[in-house]
Protein 1
Amino acid sequence: MDAYSPSSSVQPFVSVPAFYRVNPKVNLFAIPSVTYYADEIYNNPKVDSRTSWGVALGANYAFDF
């Protein structure tokens, strides 16, 4: 097996945020995303998939000062 020697690459990704206003002070959000790995990354022996899926979930609260 040849040694892995990475070079520079571009990782395109898509992210589609969604926000939901619960009330004037509370907002919920979800941000699903998918990343496509270029050959330079995919050829790494530790990487077993061409794409990576993820999601960020959270809530915001607005304080009155």
Note: Strands lie at 13-15, 18-21, 26-36, 51-61.
Protein 2
Amino acid sequence: MGLFERLRIKAYIRFHQRQHPNAMGSAEVMGFLDHLASDQHES
């Protein structure tokens, strides 16, 4: 696994207040992707 993937995983976990990824579902994934998309539009 590369550095970029590790950073994205860490950001995903931090975004969801350090919940384990196994405890999350598709709604959390979509929320994180929306967050990433909105960050890219702002920068």
Note: Residues 26-42 form the longest helix (17 residues).
